[in-house]
Specification:
The chain has one helix spanning about 1-25; strands at about 55, 80-85, 95, 105-110, 115-125, 125-130, 135-145, 150-155, 160, 175, 185, 205, 215-220, 235-240, 245. By secondary structure, it is mainly β. The strands form three sheets. Strands 2-5-13-8-9-11-12 form a seven-stranded antiparallel sheet, with no helix packed on it. Strands 1, 3, 4, 7, 10 and 14 form a six-stranded antiparallel sheet that branches. The radius of gyration is 29 Å and the shape is globular.
Length: about 260
Amino acid sequence: MLRHVSITATVGLLIALGMIGAVSAQQPAPAQGGQAQGRGGGTGAARASAAPLFLDAKWTRPASQTGQTKVVQENIGDPNLELRQYGLHESCLLTSGNPGSETTPFSVWSGECEQPFATLFRHKTNLVDLTGQSRVRWAVKTSGFHLVRPVVKLTDGTMYVGDYASESVPMLVTSEFVPASIRWIKLDPKRLVTVSTPGGTFNYIWAAPDLSKVDEVGFVDLMPASGHGTGGYIHVSTFQVYGRPVARAATTSSR
């Protein structure tokens, strides 16, 4: 009888020890560095912080303008931004819409651009780092086969157009993209045509611009527009750049 009780107790003890071991094995490992996991704490891998808003080209209508006019420096709401327009038909972009309207906000329209054109923005005191998680957000409307593409200009004067494109025929639609994740082609800043990359092999056209110090950033339409009506144009309202500012050297070329 005593032997039976001893065996039973021993079996029970082994079962209990096994359960304790199983529970212990399921407990999470302690955090490295001796810090406990708790509310508001933890030592998990730090997430990459989002890039701050660097540039917001808010289109404004000065009191001196009435009706549809050519886009000028005074149409840029931020006094720290300089408007730069490129192409054989410079200053062809026109204002469009009405301030305060949700469906047709005050913005810019390319219907009278008879040649490809580019509109860029230059911050007076800072370059912008468009590497990593930097992004561009814009709201566009298009007609025909026209597309809105991103364009950057580096401090050495070279210009590049990205292979990302937006189109939206029925209405203004907002979208965004990451410049570091797309491909780029060198662009002639006067004719606004793509050109080959120096040193590339036969038929090689993709470039690798240094996006860590961008002098100007904007948008380009590589097609001539068709005039008033719905033939072919681009229409851009929101244009925002999220990236880290880089102090501009005093010797940086302006164009």
